[in-house]
Amino acid sequence: MTVFLVLGIAGLAVLALSLVAGDLLDGPFQALEADWISTAAIGGFVSAFGFAGAISDDAGLPVPASVVIGAGAGLVVGWFAWWLTRLVKNGPSDGTLSITHSVGQVAQVVTDIPGEGYGVVRVVVGGHSMRLNATAHQPIAAGTQVNVTGVLSPTAVSVAQVWQP
Questions:
Q1: Of the N and C termini of the chain, which has fewer Cβ atoms inside 10 Å?
Q2: β-bridge mates for residue 160, sequence order
Q3: Cα distance between residue 119 and residue 137, in whole Å
């Protein structure tokens, strides 16, 4: 039982180290082009093997049965750790938000937009509020909803008043 407990604790240490050090420990596996191996999967396997084996051994099962039960538990936990790390590493991420994402969005005029010149609009894109300089073909009062129709510069857009029936 002591060997199983030592393996379980060692597996937990490897898991903790993989959380702290992250991908640094996966470098040798990448050199081997073994993408299916990760330190989290190895730590999960070893800790589940050790603790399940210790529980089985403590329940009075013979050592070979404890090894088989520990290996089964280790495979399940190791696969789950591998799956979770792949899910996190290969998951989609939102790209950097830019002014071009505001085109076609509805914005609120913050400061009046004169016929010749710029005012300010606030547009929400992907949950982020952006304040942009805006120009239009006709004057638009503050508080009016507008559509962003184009990008003029990294900080300015053209807008048109939203048609309301």
A1: C
A2: 147
A3: 12
| Whether the predicted model's global pTM rises above the 0.90 cut | no
Whether residue 110 is predicted with pLDDT greater than 80 in this model: the reply is: yes
CA-to-CA distance for 11 and 5, rounded, in angstroms? 10
Q: Which CATH number fits domain 99-161: 2.130.10.10, 1.20.210.10, 3.90.1200.10, 2.40.50.140?
A: 2.40.50.140
pLDDT at residue 32 in the model:
47
69 neighbors 56 (Cβ within 8 angstroms): yes
- Residue 66 contacts residue 48 (beta carbons within 8 Å): no
Query: pLDDT of 57-95, one tens digit each?
Result: 999 999 999 999 999 999 999 899 888 877 877 766 666
